[in-house]
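Bug: token stream looks shifted between consecutive jobs. Job 1:
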Amino acid sequence: MRWRRLFHVIGAVVGAVGFAMLVPAVIALIYGETAEAWRIFLAALVTGIAGWSVWKYLEPPRGLTTREGFAIVGLSWIAMAFFGTLPYLMTGEITSFTDAFFETAAGFTTTGSSIVEDPAGLSHGILIWRALTQWIGGMGIILLSVAILPLLGIGGVELARAEAPGVSPDRLTPRFRETAKRLWYLYVGLTVVEAILLSAGDMTVYEGLAHALTTMPTGGFSTHVGSLGAFSSYSQWVVIVFMVLAGVSFALHFRGLANPKAYLRNAEFRLFTGIIGAASVVIAIGIWASPFHDTIRHSIFTAVSLVTGTGYATADFGLWPVALQIMVLGLMFVGGMTGSTGGSVKPFRLGVLFQAARADLRRVIHPRGVFPVRFGRSIVKDTVVESIQSFFLLYMFIFMTGTLLFGILVSVRGGGFDLVTAISAVASAIGNIGPGLSEVGPASNYAAIPGETKWLLSFLMIVGRLEIFPVILLFSRELWRK
């Protein structure tokens, strides 16, 4: 492991985060929040100097290996969360480092869990920083660096593999950097379009921008304590459309622009939309009430928000019947498509797992038969099936272990959190959802969670965002061995 090259890239990422802090500083100045603006600018200066000085004086990363790519991604996201706390702490909007780290981790990982009881009480600059952390984390700061900054040489593909280890990077062009640029153009374009559409409704320009910055990364931070329930049905339908767009593979969007039939030909897209449709119908039946259009809107909104991992809410599903709450918990394990900004397990993996189980059952009946695993019309290689099975096993192991640790930590502190709170909080954290059930439901927040438990959930958020392997490998001797 070449440490100088490792920290060269991490320094560039931290420097980029510092540069991004200038945006909320400018917003604060526009709204007359002079003191907050200078404090955010100071946070940007500290972060920028720390990052860019490390980048400048260490060795350029030419020829990064896959091991170094995994290490860089895991350490970069931890560094981003650490320095991202500075705007909160320096402005005094959040005074506890634990709370600030939790909020920042929830932002960069697009989880949407929050310790802020009333977002409307925050300054305009901090609200935009809160939203911007999700927007940056949505497509990935590493991908941004590959696309914009000529810093990573030929190591770009290794970093992309590390951010999405379950699936090979989907190239739209022969050069990965050009592919990354195209994905970012689309990401920025959709964000702008949504901001304009939201501003044309009952949202102000500021609110429209803030919600666009948190919809496209499937983040879920809102400017109001009531989330999207505080806005009109028009705004909610706009957000539904863009949550679905954000949950679809961005590479598929590019192909769909040239040929719309590409969507229907994609097996994962059909499974993704099918799950949303089925969940919407079940929820609508379970909460049926008049007027009819409100029931339909709330059911579709909730299904889309949970499946994509956005975490917005228009209704408190913690008050729904137990059967629906169980389904809500199950939807937290779905996630957006591979190549989207959504987290969790993802429909592709779920589909392959189902087909692999089906093939095993057929082999029991026909021991000499050959039953390849298919997803759509394609045969899935055995190595890919094994990788997905390993991922799912690790995912469920971390989920169960996290739930156990959550229970132990709150018990030590004498907390009165029940099993439903523990299960849903951990599932929400590793799936990058946001709200859970019971004490952490849509009508509540994570402020009352003990400090040690917030660190556990913050760790699980990062693990889930990076799809387990880059963070877990940081604790492996094999990764650091020469």
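Job 2, same session, no restart:
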Amino acid sequence: MLNTLTIKQAAEGLRAKKFTAVELTKACLVRIEERNEELNAFISVNAEYALEAARRADERLAAGDNITMLTGIPYSVKDAICTKDLRSTGAGQILDNYIPSFQATVIDKLEQAGAVMLGKTNCDAFGHGASNENSMYGPVKHHLDQTKVSGGSSGGSAVSVADDMCIFSIAEDTGGSIRQPAAFCGIAGLRASYGRNSRYGIMPMASSFDTVGPMAKTTEDLAYIMEVMAGHDEKDATTVEEAVPTYSKELSSGIQGLKIGIPKEYFEIEGMQKEVREKIEEQLETLKKLGAELVPVSLPYTKYAISVYYILVPSEDSSNMARLDGIRYGVRSEGDSLIDVYANSRAHGFPEEVKRRIMVGTYALSAGYYDSYYRKAQKVRTKIIQDFDRVFDEVDVLVTPTSPFTAFGIGEKKDDTISMYLADVFAAPPAIAGLPALSVDAGADASGLPIGLQIIGPRLSEEVLFRVGHTLEKA
């Protein structure tokens, strides 16, 4: 079936004229029609738009001009990423009717490469969550077991790839929103280095954490996507000007002599699922057999990462969410005064988790508590960054679990906020430090639910992460 192909397989088939971009796109649309009602991965599907893009891709392929690995390849986009003239809700009802007049730079780059956008995927509203239960359009269900969560916040993107509704997806990662659902769903997902990909056109959650990255069936596919989407953007002052490597050329270089750090703190977390530890340890032995050197290391400030994350992110969040007030755009509720309009619009347009983080962030930034919480958290953030800097003087990459457990039941942690926040315990530290991190499939537990392995590297070291991930997948 065409929709089950990887980017490499699909690109080779298109170039060999075994099938057309329109046929490939129709196969994905059929799969969406069959499965989306039960899985709830897509909020909006744009079949007419996608088929027109596919026709243009076929013309480009026929002409043999300016063809890329992504020409004619269907993909999905997390709904917290703006797309011009296409509904973009962020999975919050306050933006239920929002149609942007502009779009994200990364989407512009994909369109220029000839990729085919199928639609917008469901997510925790504005990125707030680790289970995709905080979407105001309902939770995304796991493609292997519909009683389980898909992971968050980019659960719709993960399921759309894992269930073969598209070939790849573009999502956003603040503290684990790409890697954790990728781990839960058994696919590959990359949090790029902060500044590697443009954030222009992304609905901001925490501006010093947010990154944009790809989700796909293999690490090799991620490399092809990053070659297109990465790079400096004049519209985003936080992007770096370093040249984008040809990531795919480095994939088969092997890992002989690579020093892989094993941070002890990531294997001492209370409540880690036994099968997760065992599968990661098996993968570490595989890496050792393939020529890597395993080096025990320590990151002592890891234990403070969740506390730091849930002070700094809500603080930035409360500022960013202020723009959503029902006045300038989006859905407006009625009220007897301006304050009533604000209050009613936000009360009906935001889910509980968004409101909770806005209140936490506003409290942490308030005059009486700024020094006690926000300033102190920023100091500890610096300590976490220094931890990583010190360790990367000794090793090339770190390998850890992506999540301490596999996908849990829908509703299982809904009323236990602290337990839910701990779902990001391994994903948050590299996000705090602005580092790249890759999640790849490491096997499954006894129930058949996927387990994710996380590879963390120094800033702008994506090509090394891809080498390790690709080597594991080939092994």
